[in-house]
């Protein structure tokens, strides 16, 4: 059994976990670790020491504290450990402060820094692309963080519905064209003089120029390259 499979088996048999009662967390270099937010007491000392250091979220620079929901924290923990189960508790917010390189409070002229705002409406959990943003002067941001990092797919997503003009701070969207899991794409194949076009479904977030697994209408699964105009080949 692999190390990953062993961890999955351990979490599947460890019952339910709870979040720690702390209201404030200081993250070093923008990295939130499992042991800072999850009560790992159901695990053995050996397993606990390994799991506690696992990074479950990474935050971009901020010069202020931000707030994250306990629901978001549980989702990040489950993404890192898929068999981790949580007791349903009261939804609450954690305040997150930054120490180390992620603390951006030493800038002397913040108005000259380049920050970004949305120029289109972005739905909750939607991937944020660079084409949806415009540069703007930095300003004092809200303590409610408008985005989160999808660690599994290495993408930035909206924490809630974001209207056009929402200030995001020093944050860039994904530079390439991206479409999400479940999107309908057109698959193009050419052999000699024959050109075939068929509809397929993306089985994972698709990034322009990268391979992606898709499913055809006859339930065949294969990998292909996603093109920026919304098709594959």
Question: What are its keywords?
Answer:
single chain; five-stranded mixed β-sheet; mainly beta; 233 residues; 14% helix; 4 helices
Explain this structure to me?
The structure is a single chain. With 233 residues, the chain is mainly beta. Helices cover 14% and strands 37% of the residues. The chain contains 4 helices and 20 strands. It has a 5-stranded mixed β-sheet, with no helix packed on it. The protein has a 3-stranded mixed β-sheet with strand order 4-1-7.
Strand content: 35-45%
Helix content: 10-25%
From the structure provided, what is the oligomeric state, counting identical versus distinct chains? single chain
Q: What strand order characterises the main sheet?
A: 19-18-16-15-20
Q: Which sheet architecture does the biggest sheet show?
A: 5 strands, mixed
Structural class: mainly beta
The averaged pLDDT comes out at 79
Can you tell me the residue ranges where pLDDT is under 50 for at least 5 consecutive residues?
Answer: 102-112
**Between the first and last Cα atoms, what is the distance in angstroms?**
37 Å
Count of DSSP-assigned helices: 4
Q: What is the H/E string?
A: HEEEHEHEEHEEEEEEEEEEEEEE
